[in-house]
Amino acid sequence: MFSKDLFIVDTEKLTVTCPADHVVAITVSVCGGGKVSFKTYCANCPMRQSCTTSRRGRTITIHPCEAILQRARKEQADPAWKARYRADRPIVERKIAHFTRRQWGGRKARTRGLERVATDLDTRAGAVNWARLAVLGLHHGDNGWAIA
């Protein structure tokens, strides 16, 4: 099936063009996003088998920040961006795993109330950061704090 990336979303003109070159206006919702229905074109479209199995035709949902999402997807296609992401992602994923360890309550709050939960999260984040700094060799010298 065709992914949304194959549809051309024009956020300035508020239109979406399908791979078969059918252009439909975006029906804007209250929150700023919208929907596009290609129902009238799908019945006789030769690409229908590759696009949708719905008898109502293909529908595309437009996010309120669609332009930003499109720009991010374009940046992520760059090989240099992918290399940087692959270098950083394992480290970040490991830190998230440390943050959600079972001894800290896993992914559930250990307390009740927004202030107490926020304090618990701040304490947990501080402990994870101090542990990382200790591994990096943080020490206090004549000029203040430094990493070895």
Structure, explained:
The protein is an alpha+beta fold and 148 residues long. The chain has 2 domains: 4-72, no CATH class; 79-147, no CATH class. The chain has helices at 39-42, 48-51, 66-76, 79-99, 114-135, and strands spanning 8-10, 15-17, 23-25, 27-28, 34-37, 59-62, 138-141, 144-147. The strands form 3 sheets. It has a 3-stranded antiparallel beta sheet with strand order 1-2-3, with no helix packed on it. Strand 4 and strand 5 (34-37) form a beta hairpin. The radius of gyration is 24 Å and the shape is elongated. The chain starts with 7 loop residues before the first strand and ends with a strand.
pLDDT averaged over residues: 87
- Strand order across the largest sheet: 1-2-3
Q: Mind describing the biggest β-sheet?
A: 3 strands, antiparallel
Q: Quote the beta fraction.
A: 15-25%
Total domain count: 2
- What is the number of helices? 5
As residue ranges, the low-confidence spans are none
Listing every helix as H and every strand as E from the N terminus to the C terminus, the arrangement reads EEEEEHHEHHHEE
First-residue to last-residue Cα separation: 53 Å
State the shape.
Answer: elongated
Secondary-structure content class:
alpha+beta
* Percent of residues in helices: 40-55%
